[in-house]
């Protein structure tokens, strides 16, 4: 099937499915570690890659492949590799593409484990990472050296919802002969397709919106076979960060409702952002859908929606922020995001707690900042739950 002819919502439901002789309508879960061969010669052919077909579920599995092909169709990528987690995807990518002596340039506001992986772990293997301010294209250019091999960004960023112009950064990467990887966790392909804007590789934590209901941990890489088929797939196969067939099935079914869920998340988040912006206990709201967001125009151009994450600063300090969090009865106090259930987080003491106070200040993450991943509960109930704490501040 050539999925280019079909719209995103159709691909989300249909792409990647292969049926067995049983004629099942829904995609089956192949819980098998290995596969059998008709005879010794077929086994030998498969092992030297002369014949297509499954060998072992660390290498390929039919349910995992269905998820990979569906996500590839959604991102508009030639190839997808599913992994055990989002971090497993980033590690697999780096081990496949980089070698000692290479330099990575990454945006400063990244998911905490991604920072640890780049600066703490890969540093020990001779791969150096420098961190750059996400929005400033000229800062990226200045930080480049002849050793720069990979640019890595999250856009919008966590938790302050800053963006980078993907097409501009992709042009810069191309002109210098390096690759651009975009962690598309916050937008998902329902809202943003980085490959169509010139990025080389899309990284996913499937744990977030692709599942959408907080059930499984998983990840994926999407891009041209030129980058993923050789070394990167080899690292997945021999390094072993493979996705389980059960998790692949959960994500496969999650993709079917992705567009609808993302529309609802965007709708709820923009209502909540507007409501927070007019609340007297709120000092500042960070949401690209608000007209006063400094990159509102870029977000409107680059994304099909403004996303489901809203951050805001309360008037006061840590005590007031914690009071708002602790006054909730409905919202879940957890650092996870991208769930049907609304979650509330204090970044300074959780997701960004391991940064030094100076690093946090430089990243703009204050003690009065709260991040909300807006879920699918009725928006009035979410607002009432937050009003309990906020009304006590003014
Ligand atoms: C959660 C997350 C990751 C890591 O994904 P895991 O599935 O937890 O390994 C990477 N990037 C972003 C933006 C995330 O939110």
Automatic annotation (TrEMBL):
Q: In which pathway does it act?
A: Amino-acid biosynthesis; L-methionine biosynthesis via de novo pathway; L-homocysteine from O-succinyl-L-homoserine: step 1/1
Calcium: is it a keyword of this entry? no
Cofactor(s) of this protein: pyridoxal 5'-phosphate
Molecular functions per Gene Ontology: carbon-sulfur lyase activity; pyridoxal phosphate binding; transferase activity, transferring alkyl or aryl (other than methyl) groups
Report the GO terms under cellular component: cytoplasm
EC class of this enzyme? transferase
PROSITE patterns the record matches: CYS_MET_METAB_PP (PS00868)
- Which family does the entry's similarity section mention? Belongs to the trans-sulfuration enzymes family. MetZ subfamily.
PANTHER family (alphabetical): CYSTATHIONINE GAMMA-LYASE, TRANS-SULFURATION ENZYME FAMILY MEMBER
Q: What does this protein do?
A: Catalyzes the formation of L-homocysteine from O-succinyl-L-homoserine (OSHS) and hydrogen sulfide.
Q: How does it assemble?
A: Homotetramer.
Would you tell me the protein name for this molecule? O-succinylhomoserine sulfhydrylase
Task: Identify the taxonomic lineage of the organism of origin.
Answer: Bacteria, Pseudomonadati, Pseudomonadota, Gammaproteobacteria, Thiotrichales
**Name of encoding gene:** metZ
């Amino acid at each position: 099937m050539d999925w280019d002819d079909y719209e995103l919502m159709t691909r989300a439901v249909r792409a990647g499915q292969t049926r067995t002789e049983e004629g099942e309508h829904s995609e089956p879960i192949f819980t098998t570690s290995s596969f059998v061969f008709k005879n010794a010669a077929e086994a030998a052919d498969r092992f030297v890659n002369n014949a297509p077909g499954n060998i072992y579920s660390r290498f390929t599995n039919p349910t995992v492949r269905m998820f990979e092909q569906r996500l590839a169709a959604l991102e508009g990528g030639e190839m997808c590799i599913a992994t055990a987690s989002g971090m497993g995807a980033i590690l697999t990518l780096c081990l496949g593409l980089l070698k000692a002596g290479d330099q990575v340039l990454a945006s400063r506001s990244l998911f905490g484990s991604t920072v640890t992986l780049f600066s703490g772990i890969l540093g020990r293997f001779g791969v150096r990472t420098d961190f750059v301010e996400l929005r400033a294209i000229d800062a990226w250019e200045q930080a480049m050296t002849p050793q720069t091999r990979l640019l890595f960004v999250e856009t919008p960023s966590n938790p302050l919802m800053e963006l980078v112009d993907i097409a501009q950064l992709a042009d810069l990467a191309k002109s210098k002969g390096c690759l651009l990887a975009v962690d598309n966790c916050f937008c998902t392909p329902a809202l943003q397709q980085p490959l169509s804007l010139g990025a080389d590789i899309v990284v996913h934590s499937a744990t977030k919106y692709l599942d959408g209901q907080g059930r499984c941990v998983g990840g994926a890489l999407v891009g041209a076979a030129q980058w993923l088929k050789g070394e990167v797939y080899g690292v997945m196969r021999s390094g072993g960060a493979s996705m389980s067939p059960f998790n692949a099935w959960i994500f496969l079914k999650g993709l079917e409702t992705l567009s609808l869920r993302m529309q609802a998340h965007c709708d709820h988040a923009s209502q909540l952002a507007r409501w927070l912006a007019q609340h007297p206990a709120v000092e500042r709201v960070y949401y690209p859908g608000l007209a006063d967001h400094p990159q509102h125009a870029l977000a409107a151009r680059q994304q099909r929606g403004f996303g489901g994450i809203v951050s805001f600063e309360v008037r006061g300090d840590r005590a007031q922020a914690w009071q708002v969090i602790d006054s909730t009865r409905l919202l879940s106090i957890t650092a996870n995001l991208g769930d049907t259930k609304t979650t509330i987080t204090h970044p300074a003491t959780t997701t960004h707690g391991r940064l030094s106070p100076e690093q946090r200040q430089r990243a703009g993450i204050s003690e009065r900042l709260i991040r909300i991943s807006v879920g699918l509960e009725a928006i009035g109930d979410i607002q009432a739950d937050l009003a309990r704490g906020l009304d006590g501040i003014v």
